[in-house]
Design goal:
The complex is a heterodimer of chains A (516) and B (161). In chain A, 39% of the residues lie in helices and 23% in strands. Chain A has 516 residues and is an alpha+beta fold. A seven-stranded antiparallel sheet of chain A has the order 13-12-11-17-16-15-14, with helices on both faces. Chain A has a six-stranded antiparallel sheet with strand order 7-6-5-10-9-8. Chain A has a four-stranded antiparallel sheet with strand order 1-2-3-4. The radius of gyration of chain A is 28 Å and the shape is globular. Classes of the chains: A alpha+beta (516), B alpha+beta (161).
Amino acid sequence: MTGFTDGEWHRLHPLTPLLRGGITFVAIAGFLLYNVRDILIDMAFGGRGGESEPLLWLYESEYFWLAVLALVVGLALVIVGYYLAWRMNTFRITDEVLEVRSGVLFRRNRKGRLDRIQGINIARPFFARLFGAARLEVNVAGQDANIKLDYLTSAAADELRRDILRLASGTRVAEAQARAEQEVLLGDDGQPLPRTAGVSHLIDQRVHELLAPELDPGLAPPESVVTMHMGRLIGSLLLSGFSVFVLALVAGIAWGVAATGSYLFLIGVLPALIGTSSFYITRFTRSLRYSIAGTPDGVRIGFGLLSTSNETLPPGRIHSIQVTQPLLWRPAGWWEIKVNRASTSSAKGAAGQANTTILPVGNLDDVRKVFALVLPDHVDDGSMALFERGLRSTGGADGFVNSPPRARWYLWFSRRRNGFAMLPGVVVLRQGAVWRQLTIVPQARMQSVAVSQGPVFRALRLASLRVHTVAGPISPSLSAVDSAEAVRFFREVADAAILSSSADTSHRWRSGEATA
Amino acid sequence: MTEHLDLPEIAWRRVSPRYIVVDLVGGLLFGLIVVGAGAVVAYFIGLAWLWAVVAAVAVVFVVAIALTPRRVRAIGYQLRDDDVLFRRGILYQRFVAVPYGRMQLVDINRGPLARALGLSELKFVTAAAATGVVIPGLAEADAEELRDRLVALAESRRAGL
């Protein structure tokens, strides 16, 4: 146990105001220091620099001491304000809830039930990493429904996440006590890190934290980690749809210059260059140290090179999974995996977009490993073989109920790959012959199911299926299915959804294990 | 015309025939506003083909309004042991099944005309925005009884998200 989970109120990292202000503080301090330095040099050597400098002018005017006084008072007010904000910002964790109080004039109290947690994210912006601090964010379902603890010491954030997940998982105190024996040292006041160990130790620790792999091998089984190869990452970026767009742009500009003989077209190049390179750099640095691993409390996904984020999704928090393959990736056999989840994390994913991509790029083997992590109850040899056929098969009798031949008027190329399959616990939808796509929805997470038919489909005896899940990048649906099969799908899935959700205990995912 | 989608084993409960009036008046008003606005624009611009567009829109509205009674009769719902089934549409058919445990809340809405006729509209909200199940044209007492029953059922079968 960390000192945090005792049900008492605790404060955040003392450097929180500085870290929240972040780079702005550094910039202002640097600017002031730079100007003051000139003045100090002038005072010492009696020289005269640029006469127009505002600070110099102020120094020579009669209001100088008044200005200094205003500055000191202003600074004091800011410091007192931040100190009060830090002092009033407290949190506590009981067996049932996480509660945060904040605000000086406008008080705010936010309470989240632990069994409603959808994910816990630990973000370490680069500036905060230098100070060994981290931001812990507890996500629950809904918009703007995150509980943020910024900042904590890095080690404390990891411990706290583990403890919150343990409390949320429904395991009881006996296991917690067994774990407590192997704890690192923590102060009584909840401010960990033994500072008595001296500065060199502290620096060692910072360096270690900066260089350490994102996943602590003690907390996650390393054999399940998918490794990101730099060559593959660069290749996947170069072969993305965005690269095609960039190439088209370059070709257009080159043609424009060659055809008109004027270099007017090059004016647009610089902003375009900045935009494209920042896109590539963001994706690259986010994904380079990508990691994914299974822990007893869910899947842990890490992103980021300088600013890192590292998120744990407890079991049963993934509402659907989609594997896609752009056409350009097919020769290399690469895939991308996205998920739908009920919460919105403020941490950014692989491309600075919403954090729903759980595998930026990987080969079939990586896809298999990720499936095993995110669908632990539904993956065995049989289902994995079906998933693989869903990914790579060209269609036909491969375990999927595909669209009938009369659907070719609607689906010109993908008719033979357009189908569904039902396994115990999951619904599998497959689409696309050019842009291949496989969607898996755990039945215990489905919200509802619909079948619909318009006049054109009625004439062709076809129908559309749709499985409703929480909002996200995936909307699982299938069109142009044989209408009798669609009705059968509707009946079976409606029944299966009820059975699966009543048998599902993942909101207290470990409550079966511990009986103490 | 080939056969419609159907679940023959379900004994569908239908909505009140009075709802036809509500739907008719609503459709008429909307149609008059759209066609009227189109006619004004066409009058001031004075292009012949614009009048043709307005006329086509008017025909579509007339057909849609003429089909209102059939459309209302096609709305059906059924409370099964563990879920609600809902259907609507003739030309564009839609069937939805929502397990009780997935219901986040139940809304009752009453428009001015529906209220005058003693009707209510029941709306189910799940965590998925696309579920979109709205049963119109229920007698007020039925709607409230149905809501209380659904809330009780949802409570007894509550699951996570």
